[in-house]
Amino acid sequence: MSTPWTTADIPDQAGRTVVVTGANSGLGLATSRALAAAGARVVMAVRDTERGGAAARSITGDVEVRRLDLADLASVREFAAGWEGGLDVLVNNAGIMMVPQGRTADGFELQFGTNHLGHFALTNLLLPHVTDRVVTVSSGLHRGGRIVLDDLNWENRPYSDTGAYGASKLANLLFTLELQRRLTAAGSTVRSTAAHPGYAATNLQSHTGSRLKDLGMKLGNRFIAQSDTDGALPTLFAATADLPGGSYAGPSGFQEGRGAPTLVGRSQSASDVDLAKALWTASEQLTGIS
Prior knowledge:
Order of helices and strands: EHEHEHEHEHEHHHEEH
Structural class: alpha/beta
Radius of gyration: 17 Å
CATH architecture: 3-Layer(aba) Sandwich
């Protein structure tokens, strides 16, 4: 029986540069800390640079904080325009979960716009700099998601915070799939991988706008969930292990809720090549970025 993969298995990252979005807390902070400890230069891309700075000071290693608001395409463009030099790994980690209905600065449904479209735009703008891989963080809840191509921004349906979250996480996996197809077709050695943390205790689950839901998630975080450090392991596995493009990593335990990282399956919808192509085209049209 093989030994479970841990942070001790991260190869030496000296000389490598990594961008981690949403790096000021939770999974993003745990990911940044582990990569910096392995020798990487980590750029923490955060919406709130004051909080990001405080988080960076808790990390030993080469870290830098830069502002990035994924709910505002102007901010995404500004971040990408300021990038110089190579970028080994882009970790699309930031996200919001089951929040009340809202809109991004560009008018997109808030969860789809932040979790998918923001990262779609960022990746395409930074891709000329990327030399190794793009890692996108999804969720096991993608299995309950549904992509409605003619109503991606929930303008013609009753809003569901759970449904919108699941759709955004399904979009993350379809993006990973289509990005890898395009990279392969272009003869690129850059890889597109994905990961999900299982059930990890972070502050992601406390912004639903419902006191009852927030309480339930708080209790789940305390008594069921694994730590954010353990939840970051699949992301670190997808970012540093020698995996094929298109891989999807998650916990190996019961129902992928916790445990050491391994390669996991995805829903039938998340494997739909035609849907992935159609979502990519729609995302280009919505963001104006190809």
